[in-house]
Design a protein that fits this description.
16 helices, 7-stranded parallel sheet, alpha/beta, 10% strand, binds iron/sulfur cluster
Length: 396
């Protein structure tokens, strides 16, 4: 129940919004709709496996030994019971499924789809997630550096053997697939590849969100000698390909610099901490907002991990954490009409990446929030069943 103080603050906030966005202002309607949607989504994150079919340089999961910290649950009944508990007791309706590599275990993913309303997986793209049964699953395809850097950093098998063509394979697997979008970790060594990489993503019929490549093997993983150059290029490419690059310029700036207009990003600000991990008792007292009910569960389905990513906060610029930071801090954007408009756009662009939500790019713009663009989806379904005949024959 809300305290008297909470109610007073809520009323004050509403009055401020009225002041900034007038009575019949369309921005007010956009704000109301995106807030309504955001409040309905209750997310947690799940390490569905500790296994992966590659070994990327700069992967926090293996760099910090998350794969050996927990023993993976393989039994489907145990996973099912766990997911029912998440849904019924913690009221979670949205899963961000990571690993390891989730596509190695489609039978586990089917349980997520069965039990939770919204499912998003993070994948390296080497294996294609079948269409049937996963039509409404959002897929974030990881990409490091762009151009030849991607193979250099990620074309490595678990045994150490190298290979090439990971990006090309991913493009082929997910051509015109509206479920999929790239999560492109920018790296100052790859500044010269950004435009071409984004163009190839556009030509493949996909969208892209920018992320930040942290050099986890260095003492300051986010240190940049050419931060301004990287930022300028990311913003230039966003301006050139505004539809393909889903990320908002405000978000891009915050991610690359680690700063917003009110603070620097760090543990004391980060909202993507696991609420049930006792290490956060002090953090929860500092008054900075957190993602409600958010936990990241280890692959043993018992361990509540520190947060949505590595747990090593120095220089962290995880894209989900930065996006969530901006989204949970709408109050900080109430200082001017321009800032509040920016917040609405940042929030809308964030939700654009998820096929399961009303803001996905296959649906008509946020102004109308109408039905999905069935033409885009139908064309993809037809092409997918022809393109992968063995999958179609197997009913996948
Ligand atoms: S694909 Fe993902 S989990 Fe696997 S090594 Fe690369 S970053 Fe790590
Ligand atoms: S590692 Fe990053 S996401 Fe995790 S708590 Fe620290 S700052 Fe937040």
């Amino acid at each position: 129940m809300k305290s008297r103080e909470d109610r007073a603050q809520a009323l004050e906030k509403m009055a401020r919004i009225e002041e900034l966005f007038g009575r019949d202002d369309p921005w007010k309607d956009r704000l109301r709709r995106v807030l309504t949607h955001s409040r309905k989504v209750r997310t947690s994150e799940y390490h569905v496996t500790n296994a992966c079919n590659i070994r990327c340089r700069g992967c926090w999961f293996f760099e910090y030994g998350h794969d050996s910290e927990t023993r993976e649950v393989k039994d489907l009944d145990t996973l099912d019971a766990f997911l029912l508990k998440e849904r019924d007791e913690r009221k979670i309706n949205s899963a961000l499924v990571i690993g390891g590599e989730p596509t190695l275990f489609p039978d586990r993913l089917r349980l997520f789809v069965k039990r939770l309303t919204n499912v998003t997986i993070s994948s390296n793209g080497l294996r294609k997630l079948p269409l049937q049964g996963f039509e409404n699953v959002a897929i974030g395809l990881t990409l490091f550096g762009g151009g030849p850097l991607d193979d250099e950093l990620r074309g490595i098998k678990p045994g150490g053997r190298t290979f090439t063509g990971l990006f090309e394979t991913t493009l082929e697997n997910y051509q015109d697939d509206p479920r999929a979008g790239f999560i492109y970790a920018l790296n100052e060594d790859g500044i010269g590849y950004i435009e071409d990489t984004v163009r190839r993503i556009r030509d493949n019929g996909n969208r892209v969100n920018f992320n930040f490549y942290s050099k986890y093997h260095l003492s300051d993983p986010a240190a940049l000698a050419h931060q301004q150059d990287l930022l300028d290029e990311a913003l230039r490419v966003k301006a050139l390909y505004p539809e393909t690059v889903v990320s908002h310029p405000y978000y891009i700036r915050a991610m690359i610099t680690g700063r917003s207009h009110w603070a620097s990003f760090g543990y004391d600000q980060c909202p993507s901490i696991s609420i049930d991990n006792p290490q956060h008792a002090e953090r929860l007292e500092n008054g900075n907002p957190t993602l409600p009910f958010f936990n990241t569960w280890g692959a043993d389905l018992e361990t509540v991990k520190f947060c949505c990513t590595s747990g090593h906060c120095q220089g962290c610029r995880d894209s989900q954490a930065i996006s969530s930071w901006l989204l949970v801090n709408m109050d900080k954007f109430l200082d001017s009409r321009e800032h509040l408009q920016t917040w609405v756009e940042v929030a809308e662009s964030y939700w654009k990446q998820f096929i399961w939500g009303p803001y996905h790019w296959t649906k008509v713009g946020p102004e109308t929030l109408s039905a999905p663009n069935e033409q885009v989806l139908a064309a993809y379904r037809a092409r997918a069943s022809h393109a992968v005949p063995e999958l179609a024959a197997a009913g996948l």
